[in-house]
Amino acid sequence: DPQCQKEAEQAILGVPHNLPAKIQPQGAMVTLDPRTGEILAMVGGRNYAESQYNRALKSYRQPGSAIKPFVYATAIEKGYTAATIIEDKPLQIPLVDGSTWSPENYDHTFRGRIPLRIALRHSVNMVAVQLLQAVGIDAVVELMERMGIDSLVKTGPINDLNLAPLALGGLSKGVTPLELAAAYTPF
Q1: Coil/strand/helix, residue 114
Q2: Contact between 149 and 129 (Cβ < 8 Å)
Q3: pTM attached to this predicted model
Q4: Which pLDDT belongs to residue 169?
Q5: Spatial CA neighbour of 126 closest among 143, 135, 142, 114
Q6: Residues 6 or more apart from 19 whose CB is under 8 A from it?
Q7: What is the 8-class DSSP label of residue 80?
Q8: Is 41 helix (H, G, I), strand (E, B) or coil?
Q9: Distance separating alpha carbons of residues 48 and 28, to the nearest angstrom
Q10: Which residue stretches of the chain have pLDDT < 70?
């Protein structure tokens, strides 16, 4: 869509910056039609003459909390509801290397027993991690792949120990902006 493309390019160029003119931050943007999946606009960087690298297609980044809806969608498929209660509490999760992972909520507080709809709305990390453990990492990875996230790097059997940070977007390779945007279209 020529108008969407023009607006996307202007948005990337309009990102405020305080760096010297030769060191401009790069960016990427993808706009899709959620009904059809068609790409309406794609910007792979600030200036094609300076860099032909298309970050929208080739730049893998950790998606962070953008992964949580896939965890919740898996739970819904497995019979959980928006009213299902899970306790927001401190967690200690053993990892394959023998260390312990202690995730935290962004605001460093715990809410106690809360329904999934509130946990998702507030992006509560402790609930997302527990939900991932309850529904199983295999099921979440399978749903993500079904929805188009195929950049996961599987380096052995998937289990709660080697992919525990998945609930918070800690993917081994990350995702591209196009891949994540496309996977969101079913939502």
Answers
A1: strand
A2: no
A3: 0.84
A4: 74
A5: 114
A6: 25
A7: -
A8: strand
A9: 12
A10: 15-23, 152-165, 170-172
CA distance 89 to 17: 39
Q: What count of residues does the chain have?
A: 187
Angle at 35 between CA 183 and CA 167, to 5 degrees: 20
**CA nearest to 174, candidates 41, 58, 28, 39:** 58
3-state percent breakdown (helix, strand, coil) of the chain, nearest 5: 35, 10, 50
**What pLDDT does 32 receive?**
96
Tokens 């079913």 label which residue?
A: 186
Q: Is 181 exposed, middle or buried (0-12, 13-18, 19+ CB in 10 A)?
A: buried
Q: What is the pLDDT of residues 78-114, one digit of tens each?
A: 999 999 999 999 999 887 778 888 999 999 999 999 9
| C-alpha distances in Å from residue 179, one per residue of 14, 37, 59, 68, 172 | 24, 11, 10, 15, 15
Distance CA 46, CA 135 (A): 41
> In the chain, how long is the greatest CA-to-CA distance?
54
The pLDDT score that the predictor gives to residue 47 is: 86
Which residues, 6+ apart, have CB-to-CB distance to 170 below 8 Å? Answer: 62
Rg of the chain over Cα atoms, rounded to whole angstroms, equals 19
**Contact by Cβ (8 Å): 114, 131:** no
Q: Is 1 helix (H, G, I), strand (E, B) or coil?
A: coil
